[in-house]
Amino acid sequence: MRQSSVISRRVAAAAVSLVLATGAAACAGPEDTGAKGGAAGKAAAGAPQKGGTLTVLNSEAQSDFDPARLYTSGGGNVPSLVFRTLTTRNREAGAAGSKVVPDLATDLGRPNKDATEWTYTLKEGLKFEDGTPITSADVKYGIERSFAAELSGGAPYLRDWLVGGDTYEGPYKDKKGLASVVTPDDRTIVFKLRKPEGEFPFVATQTQFAPVPKAKDTGAKYEEHPVSSGPYKVVENENDGERLVLERNEHWDPKTDEERKAYPDRVDVRSGLDEAVINQRLATSSGADAAAVTTDTNLGPAELAQIGSDKALAARVGTGHFGFTNYLAFNPKVKPFDNPKVRQAIAYAVNRTSVVNAAGGSALAEPATTFLPEQKSFGFTPYDHFPAGRTGDPAKARQLLKEAGHPNGLTVTLLHSTAQNRATSPEIATAVQEALGKAGITVKLDGQEPNSFNEKRWSVKDAPGLFLSRWGADWPAGGPFLAPIFDGRQIVTNGSNYNHAQLNDPAVNKEIDEINKLTDLKAAAVRWGALDKKIGEQALDVPLFHPVYKRLVGKDIKNVVISDWTGVLDISQVSVK
After folding, report:
1. How far apart are CA 289 and CA 54, in angstroms?
2. Alpha-carbon distance 113 to 93, whole Å?
3. In what residue span(s) does the Solute-binding protein family domain sit (predicted)?
4. pTM of the model
């Protein structure tokens, strides 16, 4: 399924963007360990109040501010202040925040018996920023325009899932509209799918489901002043999102929106800043920076070391975990990785302690032995099929190499990126190299610049036998985590392929289909966890670590909420007074 591969490319390539911006791209960045927002929730004393200006200091611009073009999960972070969707993420800390809840709709959707049709009813009293009612036709039109080539960039799930979605070209070329999205009345919208999709409520959180009034659509220029359905409206957009100013939408009715608190009167997003400058400004908290946050900049090891000796600053650091796994990938089509015992030997040889240290230390990374992240919503099921302890088991690795016909060890090449991202970068590659060396495996490092690195690892034809990789989910469930990586029908031979092992196991494919039929998300999670454990027996990858995210907030910020869905501060909950 090529569309799923497109999704995966955005997930894998821009995963950090979502981790950091939560709305800039899919998968593309953290779990709260305390009460609302953990320690950072205590940054400023007193109950949150309405009023004031929230400043957002970012390195990357909030570009393409059009609901059709944004690749978001859960509605995004800054985007969710302007665009409401049929469903959204639960705006609570920790595991509770990984749930999907109604937004514009009255419920999570009503599926037919086999989950190939989903029906939604809009709440009463919904209005755009100009006071006109929001109807199901507006939601339908918003979805249809996301198919237009000139508005590309958003999550492409609907192209794959909707009947006729693979050939529809959007409302500018096809005036008849998309027949698989039906609006029998102003408050009802029905989606007809090509196959069962029990996780459809998660997809309905993405901004493609935001309503757009057809009469106000200005095509590619719509991003300059999109019509708001949320608590804020755009009053200024400079240099394609480099400076974005939001003010209250007076027609937003909080009675119809249980999720967004919308405390500040104004939100001022300033981008293009150096990450070190952002963290310094937040730490100093002078003037407007006292009421500032960031949605795309983490703290690094050096900054955390400095903060650790300052209790006041440490109290303003929020910690979170996003559904993300960094791993060592095998291509079994390349020798000697076609031999399971060679793959197992490498799994035993890896020293996860040294890898975690290379990733920034235990404050920024946690060792992983499962492909699924350690969160219940994904279906996390603990397993370690090749237990090597925290520092590896070179003796066991040597034994397996001997059984595989390599009694004197072997030499392999490891592809990695030259980007300094502490994920697929030289530091991680060197840690793997040193650990495997102790087991008699000589590792030659092949560092390539990011574009070349990605092209190679995502190519069926040119993918090496061993490379560093990472994966993040478009929503907190097992489907978008396991299917793109292990569903044989998603192998792409003429484009970007993410099934690194080129696994095409009929039993795995069938189980994915069976789980997709389930609308009971808890039951589905259990099945995803069992599937992860079963696939893990084949040693098709070596999970290395799950990243941890640390963010600093200004001294006057209150009500920091960090959920297991995004892993970062939820801007819709923040108060500055």
Report:
1. 9
2. 33
3. 99-489
4. 0.89
